[in-house]
Amino acid sequence: MKKTKKKKKTHVPFRMNVLFFVVFLLFSALILRLGVVQIVFGEDFKREIQRTEDVTVDTSVPRGKIFDTNGKAVVDNTPLNAITYTRTQSTTQEEELDVAKKLAKIIDKPADKVTEREKKDYWILKHPKQAEKKITAAERQKYQNKQIDDKELYQLQLDRITEKELKSLSKDDLEILAIYREMISGYNLVPQIIKNKGVTPKEFAVVSEHLSSLPGVDITTDWDRYYAYGTTLKSILGKVSNSDQGLPRELADYYVARGYSRNDRVGTSYIEQQYEDVLQGTKAKVKNVTDKEGNVIDTETITEGQRGKDLVLSIDIELQKRVEQIIEEELMKAKSTPGHELLDRAFVTMMDPYTGEILAMAGKQYEIDEKTKKPVLNDFSLGNFTTSYAMGSAVKGATVLTGYRTGALEPGQKIFDEPLLIKGTKEKSSYKNFGLINDLQALKFSSNVYMFKTAIKIGGGVYRPNEPLHINMDAFDTMRNSFKQFGLGSRTGIDLPGEQVGYEGYTQAPGLLLDFAIGQFDTYTPLQLAQYISTIANGGYRMQPHIVKEIREPVEKSGEMGPIVEEVEPKVLNRLDMKPSWIDRVKEGFRLVAQEQGGTAYSAFYAGTVSSHPTNYKPAAKTGTAEGLYDGPKRQDFVKAGKDVPMTWNLTLAGYAPNDHPEVAFSVVVPWAYQDDPKNPRTNTNIGKKILDAYFDIKKERQEKGLDKATSIQKVENIDEVEKGQAKARKENDSGAPQNDSTN
């Protein structure tokens, strides 16, 4: 019988099924999670992978140019080849040092600006193991215990670097360091100038060829200030910080808040500083697109930027140059004669009396060059408004007008010029006894006694020979307030920083009031003296002096100026509270001083003592000589040597021309002109004659060439309308009262 085999069933254990089920669930969860990530959050993660950052940086542009009144470029920009470095957020210190080492083999970078601290920092970078050994185990333990921090630990390393170790840095090391310090001096993504002066064509070309191996390095064109007329007017034009200096430390926060970078160049003095907002220009804005690592992947220019706007000065640069030359000649001539050892400076301001525009502002200072030990005459134009002196008899016009105004003096009144014998004081007199003279003769001959007796009357006093003089001391305030209407003892309002007011004598005594009346007590600046004489010349309007005439849009074409953005209008600060007839009478006195024989300036203008140049421009002027103890820079030398401080004489001159319709007003101030009472060198009147000659010579030369004026200044004939317009503007601004800037 045949047997049939029975087929066995395959049996999977229960535990295996459970395992398969768990694996199935895990794979299902993973697939579900991948689906969620891809479908739901896929775009978010894709954006994260492609995440970039937009960083906008500003790049500097050239400053605006400065022109004279006739459109001649006085300050310009000269192009410079430059090598720059820009680091990203991801740039490491090692990468920067590697670039610095490569650059050091291509360019020559002086290490003269490298500081000792920077040398120590670099020594630590170069010798990290040796630097580590300078920290003791105990100090390391304190650091771990947080008893000292990183900064304190690093300072210990710095302090323990020896002079020998610093000297181990080679010349090549220092050059690398000089480059490296420039690379790390600014912000990320902002180009830092590595070298912009003295870049040779070879350096420029080799760097250009190797840019691919110098990450972050680039070549560009930078700029530097160029002064077309050398040192002419240099002290007033001011200075601009260089790329190493950047923002002045004391003003850094102010500028940063206004969008500047810390390594930006800015004006640091006078015109460059005063008009920084105009000259700086609009920076170019560049957007750098970076990936999440900080690497720049794209660059986009947002705005091209524009160089600064241009300034047009009221200064006539040709007149300025001639005036400076005249001062130099007269200063050196006076210095060559005995008795002038303390003479070291002279100043001239020339201005349009109707507009306040400064036509020339010159000053020279005699100094001994430290290197050559030879005398030099340095530009000291700014001394016209930053230094003050006793002006002497030049201010007598203000004394006479104050006498009229207070009723102490009548026009045409005669006073007997005689030595004043006041009990307890030295005799006070004129340089000669003039007898009975009127106000015009008092100005013409420069009578001191006439002014003394006027001041006594203002103070309510009565002069009696050999008796004490009793005066109401309120007369000081009366006379000072009156003088300030002319600008003497008050700020002129010039558009330059650093203007000084002068010095008011604090001691009050009858004799000192008499000294005040002849300009030998309070001190004034040369610019105040020019404003004073201008106020009289134009009929009683104190005009605000200004040196900038226009602001213009920049144009790239050389030799041209752009459209006017802003024009500085004449501004009346105040009008003299005096009758026009009184002012005219003082003007007649000034005419006599310069045009009639016997006048204190007549010999200079008409007797041929200065030059053979004919005087046909009808000058009016007032001379001044102020005697007093020397108070110049060498005063301490006398004190230290136990010697008496000597007496010196300041020489001054204030005037205008032509006398009947003034075009130009001026002041000449020569402090400490002579001592020991030698023959008066008349440096003041010599300079005054020559500068007026120069002004009218230039005018004639230009007329012969088809030009109508000595400068492009337009005289304000309707000065009353100017004041009315200003008064209307003040009223519209709800100021309520006319502007009067005759206070300190």
TrEMBL record:
<comment type="similarity">
    <text>Belongs to the transpeptidase family.</text>
</comment>
<dbReference type="InterPro" id="IPR005311">
    <property type="entry name" value="PBP_dimer"/>
</dbReference>
<dbReference type="GO" id="GO:0071972">
    <property type="term" value="F:peptidoglycan L,D-transpeptidase activity"/>
</dbReference>
<dbReference type="Pfam" id="PF00905">
    <property type="entry name" value="Transpeptidase"/>
</dbReference>
<keyword id="KW-0133">Cell shape</keyword>
<keyword id="KW-0812">Transmembrane</keyword>
<dbReference type="GO" id="GO:0009252">
    <property type="term" value="P:peptidoglycan biosynthetic process"/>
</dbReference>
<comment type="pathway">
    <text>Cell wall biogenesis; peptidoglycan biosynthesis.</text>
</comment>
<keyword id="KW-0961">Cell wall biogenesis/degradation</keyword>
<dbReference type="InterPro" id="IPR036138">
    <property type="entry name" value="PBP_dimer_sf"/>
</dbReference>
<dbReference type="InterPro" id="IPR012338">
    <property type="entry name" value="Beta-lactam/transpept-like"/>
</dbReference>
<dbReference type="GO" id="GO:0008360">
    <property type="term" value="P:regulation of cell shape"/>
</dbReference>
<dbReference type="Pfam" id="PF03717">
    <property type="entry name" value="PBP_dimer"/>
</dbReference>
<keyword id="KW-1003">Cell membrane</keyword>
<dbReference type="GO" id="GO:0071555">
    <property type="term" value="P:cell wall organization"/>
</dbReference>
<dbReference type="GO" id="GO:0005886">
    <property type="term" value="C:plasma membrane"/>
</dbReference>
<protein>
    <recommendedName>
        <fullName>serine-type D-Ala-D-Ala carboxypeptidase</fullName>
        <ecNumber>3.4.16.4</ecNumber>
    </recommendedName>
</protein>
<feature type="domain" description="Penicillin-binding protein transpeptidase">
    <location>
        <begin position="347"/>
        <end position="692"/>
    </location>
</feature>
<keyword id="KW-1133">Transmembrane helix</keyword>
<dbReference type="GO" id="GO:0009002">
    <property type="term" value="F:serine-type D-Ala-D-Ala carboxypeptidase activity"/>
</dbReference>
<dbReference type="InterPro" id="IPR050515">
    <property type="entry name" value="Beta-lactam/transpept"/>
</dbReference>
<keyword id="KW-0472">Membrane</keyword>
<feature type="region of interest" description="Disordered">
    <location>
        <begin position="716"/>
        <end position="744"/>
    </location>
</feature>
<keyword id="KW-0573">Peptidoglycan synthesis</keyword>
<feature type="compositionally biased region" description="Basic and acidic residues">
    <location>
        <begin position="717"/>
        <end position="734"/>
    </location>
</feature>
<dbReference type="GO" id="GO:0008658">
    <property type="term" value="F:penicillin binding"/>
</dbReference>
<dbReference type="InterPro" id="IPR001460">
    <property type="entry name" value="PCN-bd_Tpept"/>
</dbReference>
<feature type="domain" description="Penicillin-binding protein dimerisation">
    <location>
        <begin position="60"/>
        <end position="299"/>
    </location>
</feature>
